Each structure stands twice: as C-alpha cells, then as structure tokens.
Amino acid sequence: MAVEAGRKAIADAGLSGADIDLLIIGTMSPDYNFPSTACLVQAKLGLGNIPSFDVHAACSGFLYTLEVGTRMLQSGNYKHALIIGSEKMSSILDWEDRETCVLFGDGAGAVVLSCSETPDIGIIDNILAVDGSNPDLLYTPAGGSVQAIDAEALAQRDNFLKMKGKEVFKSAVRRMAEISDKILEQNNISVDDIACIIPHQANIRIIDSLAKHMGAPTDKCFLNIDRYGNTSAASIPIALHEAKNSNRFKKGDYILLVAFGAGLTWAASLIKWHT
Predict the structure, then answer these.
(1) Which CATH superfamily is domain 123-272 in?
(2) What is the rounded distance in angstroms from the CA atom of residue 239 to the CA atom of residue 86?
(3) Which positions are catalytic?
C-alpha cells in the first residue's frame, strides 16, 4: 500500500523517483520491528540511497512526518521529500474484541513536499504535542521490550491493540480542539478563513464535537470514515487526496489538518494550497 501511494504521489507531483531525496513514513503497524518500513519502500520504489526512516506517532503519525520533513527541507540539504502514512491495522487487531476491531481499516496515502521560492504558501505551520502519562489508554501490551510475545501474552491476547474508548474519546475532543485553536491563533487566522478542515478520521462524534467547538459548519470537515474506518496515520493523507479530487479547496485556500492518537499524541498543520 505504501509503495503504491508513494508511486502515485511522485507521479502526481510531476517528478520521478530520481528526484526524491528524502523518504519518511508514519506508521504504527510496520512490516517488521526492524528494519523500518521506509527501508523496504525505498527499495521497492527504486529510489536512490536516500535517508529513509519511520516515525511512530500512531494516528498523529502523518502530521509528525510532515513536521520532520518540513524542517529537513528547510535545512537546505533536501529538495523533494516523499511523506507517507501507511497502516495495516488488521494485523494488530483482536477480531474477538468487537469494541475495537470494527473501528479500524487498512490504507496508505502520500504527499511530496518540495522547496519553494514563493513565500507564505504550502505548509504555514505545524504544532505537535504529547502526554505520555497514560500510555495504556491505547496500546499493544506485548511485542516490545517491556513484554515479549510469549505463551502468556498470546493467552491474554496482549499482542493485539487495546483501547479504553471513553477516555480516549474525551481526550481526543479536548486536545484536537485546543491545538486547532492554538494554530489558528498564532497565525492570525479565523475558522472562517479555512476552506476545509481535514481531521483524523477516528470517530464521527469526535469530528462533530470539533466542528461545534470551532464554530464551523460540519460540512467544512471532510469525512470518509464511513468508507474506510480509522486508518490511523493513513487517514489524513487519504482524506487530503480525496478532498483535493472532489474540489473541496483551490489554490490559495487555507486547509487545517488535525489529528490525535496513541501516546497520547496530537498535532495540527496549517496549509495554504498552492496548486
């Protein structure tokens, strides 16, 4: 999925693989603990020996990769970064836990970030945040160095995703609202200036609550959760692609991306569309 999304993004940008000099993938369901999924995708796309690595910030992962990619481009050492959000959530779900397994989906989305001489266009601002004090609100207990996947873990089904849904919902509503307010305020932008809000596609009630808090009509928020479910780090790039293709914004429009995920992590990106 990541390979196909990356290939399409490169073509959509009017570039070839030889033009890409940085690859970053946001994922919480990598092919292996190591090597990184980015290493595998680099090879399958036939890219050069470019820096390629994963960022693990769960459902906020794509926005975290945008920030990392933006800063690396600003260093002047890179020109075109391929940024991918990709998840195979079905591989980490407990299909006997109907409170979680029916919520998630598999998918991938990608963008190409490129340096520009035009000021005040593209990514205007990114804000990232984390509160790691309650990791067990949304996590996989076994499979890391804390707990191996042994007979006991398998018996307890601790190798699968666990979520305390009510607590996650409350935190998601509050944190997504806070970070949306913050990024608009520090850039002197009002919600009326935003053409399209693309939230992480976790839960329609979370998205409705966010729109209500911001004083935005619900239809300003792009939705596709009814078709794909929660695809974690892939949800925002997939939604961005579909919103673009359905003419939800045009050149010069402001777009707000906002996400929340395990960690707990949350993030927002303000973009001025340029194509």
Answers:
(1) Thiolase/Chalcone synthase (3.40.47.10)
(2) 13
(3) 59, 200, 230
